Amino acid sequence: MARKKKEPIIEELEKAEADLLEEKAEEEKEKENETLDDKIEEAKQVASEVSDVAQKKAAEAKEEAKEKADKLAAKWNEAEDKTAEFDKDDIEKNRAFAILGYFGLLVLIPLIFAPNSKFARFHANQSLVLFVISMTYWFFASCILAIIFLSSKFFGFLFLLIFLVVSLFLFVMWVQGISNAANGKARNLPFVGTWELLDLDD
Predict the structure, then answer these.
(1) Does 3 map to a domain?
(2) pLDDT tens per residue across span 93-132
(3) Are residues 63 and 90 in the same domain?
(4) Residue 184, SS3?
(5) Which tens digits make up the pLDDT trace of 140-175?
(6) Number of domains within the chain
(7) Which domain holds residue 148?
(8) Domain assignment of residue 63, yes or no
(9) What 3-state class would DSSP assign to 187?
(10) Residue 202 forms part of a structural domain
């Protein structure tokens, strides 16, 4: 049986409907593109704001670190120099004993071989204070570090970094003490130089 030919009006209606659907699909696609562009622009704006905040925070952190470094340097340079109070002959004769006193238990050397030397005794006290602080710090810090590493690797490495920084600081003070003794200076070590474990009175 032959298929009935569609009426022209029906064909026109179907074509108009198809065109309408196509236009609607294009409009929706354009809206999606506009929405996507808006989101991209919004994301760019947020990223720019985050970048600005990050740069501001970094600048503030840098400034704060600089201030702390300046304060630390000022505190370091505040260490009192008492060289003028010491006899030059005493300094020259006992400089080697003063240096040896900074090598751990050799702190006993100046006390045994130069007991009447004010200069050697001054540095023996400095080295003894630094030795006691260092040993106490390394013992407790090592115990804490071992415990932290057992519970968390991340915090363990973080504490290890702090441990190394403080150890470096103690090492620098140790070098400073040796340098002072070698140069014939009776200058207090930074921060701990005023502590007395030995009787420094004549």
Answers:
(1) no
(2) 999 999 999 998 888 889 899 989 999 999 999 999 999 9
(3) no
(4) coil
(5) 998 988 888 888 878 888 888 999 999 999 999 999
(6) 2
(7) 81-182
(8) yes
(9) strand
(10) no
